[in-house]
From TrEMBL:
Its EC number is 5.3.1.23. Pfam families: IF-2B. The lineage of its organism: Bacteria, Pseudomonadati, Pseudomonadota, Alphaproteobacteria, Rhodobacterales. It comes from Candidatus Rhodobacter oscarellae. One of its GO terms (molecular function) is S-methyl-5-thioribose-1-phosphate isomerase activity. Catalyzes the interconversion of methylthioribose-1-phosphate (MTR-1-P) into methylthioribulose-1-phosphate (MTRu-1-P). GO terms for biological process: L-methionine salvage from methylthioadenosine. The active site is at D243. Keywords: Amino-acid biosynthesis, Isomerase, Methionine biosynthesis. The keyword Membrane does not apply. It catalyses: 5-(methylsulfanyl)-alpha-D-ribose 1-phosphate = 5-(methylsulfanyl)-D-ribulose 1-phosphate. The gene is mtnA. Belongs to the EIF-2B alpha/beta/delta subunits family. MtnA subfamily. It is an enzyme of class 5 (isomerase). This is Methylthioribose-1-phosphate isomerase.
Amino acid sequence: MKVNGEHYRSIWRDGATGEVRIIDQRWLPHQFKMVTIRTLEEFEVAIRDMWVRGAPLIGATAGFGIAEQMERDPSNAGFQTAYEVLNATRPTAINLRWALDRCRDALMPLSEGERAEAAWALAQEISDEDVGINKSIGQHGLKLIQDIAATKPAGEPVRVLTHCNAGWIATVDWGTATSPMYHAHDAGLPVHIWVDETRPRNQGALTSWELGEHGVPHTYIVDNAGGHLMQHGQVDLVITGTDRTTAQGDVCNKIGTYLKALAARDNGVPFYVALPSPTIDWTVRDGVAEIPIEERPAQETTHVLGRDAAGAVSTVQVSPDGSPGGNPAFDVTPNRLVTGLITERGVCAASAEGLAGLFPEKAG
């Protein structure tokens, strides 16, 4: 996707220097910054402290982190250290472990002298695959928007509500939940996106920034407005992303997603989840009971980052002194509340049978 008319990916290896570059998302939407990450420790911090975020992007970043480590120390011990350090950064998003396991399976059979080159090629392959997957998700999700558009008076937009940032900067490109929106907009379909602010880190502001850069009509709303809009017929469908999906179709996404699904069910609004297949954890069946929920620092709830009237970006405290903050980062939406799953292979029911129909080689 583009920023100021120029195409970017969220992570890439510089062709001239060989260094890994990322868009540093801590400063968005107020400042657009790129940084270089060179060491295992820097990759660890970038993932843990959310310089990069979003399950697919975390997985891609882990792949590049392994490659950087193999350049420095291609021994078995060097790989194991990198695996353990990176795997400990974010416990909920399954793409992290998926990417690390893929690197392990590909690199460990090789000699130490072969590992660095192979690791760089694999990291690039993971990134390129993510772009292709997300583009396909958008093409399948486009059909859902087209079907709704066909029932509306000419020129009336399809109104989509989304939660958190499942956009291109949460992936390598295109995004998951946003990909159908971009495809619809580019196809000339009128759409309007309701963007939840998504406290406590206000990732909805990143979605609004993305959509604005691409020219997609949207409105940034507080988290608690979604149910009201649904009650008054102003939401045609909900599309969110997911950080981990169970083999039965439960979805784990940013905190507050479950509440949107409940409101959608109560108001007869279709609730879809866009997911690349690496976010499916085939070893887990009961999402509520089995998926570990990351508890992030309390300061994310007690403080907020913003820009003042003078243009300065700073963090301010919004809570009383001494009040503790609780910060579960994700919740689980049971499959019974999910209308369908949008994958790179098509749309299916949120069920074991639905997923097995699209991914029989995994479900078996």
